[in-house]
Design goal:
By secondary structure, the chain is mainly alpha-helical. The chain has a domain of 58 residues. It is 54% helix and 0% strand. It contains six helices and no strands. The longest helix has 14 residues.
């Protein structure tokens, strides 16, 4: 979380429309209108600067997003949580959520 980022490692707007489509399908920017979100990419920028920058020496920005999408595809987090009785709209202890995730 919030690793220091060298100024040369800034977020680069993703221009490849195939990649933008893939990201938008798996990591939609629900706070914004679809076209605005895809063009401005505020959510993806924030997530990369907050989390992806921690591994910038090993994974550059394109690799960070590829890894995030691969993990999303590999693990069905919502089903895992549901199987452990954790459903949207309720409050749960962080320990219970962590235990459910650790099962996969």
């Amino acid at each position: 979380n919030y690793c220091p980022v060298n100024r040369k490692f800034r977020y680069n707007t993703i221009k490849d429309q195939r990649k933008v489509n893939e990201l938008d399908k798996r990591w939609p920017q629900l706070k914004y209108d679809e076209n605005f979100g895809r063009n401005k990419q505020y959510l993806w920028e924030n997530e990369f600067l907050k989390h992806g920058s921690c591994s910038i020496q090993r994974y550059k920005q394109p690799a960070y997003f590829d890894l995030a999408m691969n993990l999303k595809d590999k693990f069905d987090l919502l089903s895992t949580l549901r199987n452990h009785g954790i459903t949207p709209g309720s409050t749960y202890d962080l320990d219970d959520i962590e235990k459910a995730i650790k099962t996969v």
